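Possible regression after last week's pipeline update?

I re-ran a chain I had predicted before the update to compare outputs. Posting the input and the new output here so someone can diff against the archived version. Not blocking, just want to make sure nothing changed silently.
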Amino acid sequence: MAVRLLAIPGSHPCAAVEAMLNAKGVAYERVDLFPALSRAWLRLSGFRGATVPAVRINGGRVQGSRAIARALEASWPDPPLFPADPAARTQVEEIEAWSDGPLQAIARRIALWSLLRSRAAISAALEGARLQFGCPVWLAAAVSWPVVRADAAINGASSEVVRADLAALPGMLERADEWIARGALATPPPTAADFQVAASVRLLLTLEDLSGVLGRRPVAELARRLIAVFPGRVPAGVLPAAWLP
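New output (post-update):
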């Protein structure tokens, strides 16, 4: 079965989907879309939406990490991304929705705000990218800043909002750690919720200013284990010290 993953370098939802594909042992081709052209390219490729992750599975098109998780489950049931027990599945889906919603949004805003203040971080986020048309990474980095600025505006990543996000972050991490302690997360085999949570936390781990917040938390260990490699490094000193929990 032919599978192609359309992604953007440094995207945490794309990282979640790629980790799911790897966990299921699915052979796939990853194509990193050129940042300034991704929305138009997806529409031209027959996708209804304009965001990644997007996959083609035997000619079919699916977008969004949660929808893709279910498409993968339907075609490759083992290892499962969702428990067979109805109550356990409901809990996984609730955590999945939370991580695909508030947690993902907070991680995105913090990362976008930081990238706008570090050109080196933008280049680092593109390391190892498999850009379409064979575009060199240096060229993508050169044109990515206005794209990042536009994404930050679209996602509401203002200084006021990001400062509030940083204040809320420890509570969200503690919530994930509590799920791990109860066995709702980080219990083999990893579920769709595990991959969703891990991807957002893995993005946050690229920000050196957050090392004290993340530390050796169980959810940080989960992120490193499920997504061992994640591009990017935002050097310390980008986030104001007064904003850090």
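Follow-up from reviewer: compared with the archived run. Residues 3-75 form a domain with the Glutaredoxin fold (CATH 3.40.30.10). Marking as no regression found.
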